[in-house]
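Researcher: For the annotation table, I need structure tokens for Cytochrome d ubiquinol oxidase subunit II. Please keep the output clean. Sequence:
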Amino acid sequence: MDLTILWFCIVGFLFVGYFVLDGFDFGVGMSLPFLSKDDTDRRVLINTIGPVWDLNETWVIVAGAALFAAFPEWYATLFSGFYLPLLLILAALILRGVSFEYRHQRPEAAWKRRFDRMIVVGSAVPAFLWGVAFANIVRGVPLDEGHNYIGTFFDLLNPYSLVGGVTTLLLFFVHGVIFVSLKTDGEIRERARRLAVRAGVLTIVVAAAFLVWTSLAYGTLASVLLSAAAAVVLIASFLANLKGREGLAFGLMAGTIALAVLSLFFALFPDVMPASNDPANSLTIANASSSEYTLTIMSWVALVFLPLILAYQGWTYWVFRKRVTRAQIPVEAH
């Protein structure tokens, strides 16, 4: 396989992993106002992702590093043209991480409420803006002959990208709520199941609309097939949750997100940043990639370290596989 194609696939794999793993983190954060009735409930929800949220977040760092090393032209155009939404994503991720660590530092209810609100905002903003960003990458943006973005921030807020943002927001929300039902017990678990069913109906409608739009306007045969598979798996996840099979529903929702993200990458290939104003200005895997020597060295490094990272993360999830209950939250904790 050509190394540029290999590294396009690796970058795609890293972003798939990030959206699947940090996606349910975002969903749990967004679910706080809907699933919690008191501070103990909120602590239960936060504790479901407490051991893994920071590990999940490192996937985007690795994906960005791989993008920088393998496709420096793509990285430069993306981060310079999309600097404002990416800055907002970064700020939201920092806000969320700080809130997880600081909400329990003081006992006052007002203190905790402020950080709980920041967790919700810090989860919802990236969930929405990642969809906006990737929808714009697939749609194409205006580029000059030097591959520099020549549009404005508001050009990125077009109808297609906004639907993409709402799609990722809803997918991550349902993904997180199903994770809550998988990781908790008692009343919270039942509330999460009911919420996943209600939100799942809206998610199916919006996600189907976005995938159909993508397939008709920008799709290839492979991306259309992946979009269709994502739609089928999403419906299967909804039905599994309806029957109370949280583990199956969570796995199928992870598959839905993975297939949906893969469909966007296949719709994009062989471009990495299409130019909407002039196809001659588009960035492709050929003119955006590093040298053959660089990609060769990177391939050997990835061959050694990527399996180790996957094994470590799998072991982490196995260690923290048990459900979190209200009884495990000490009354005097704050």
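Researcher: And a one-line annotation?
Model: Strands lie at 271-273, 283-284.
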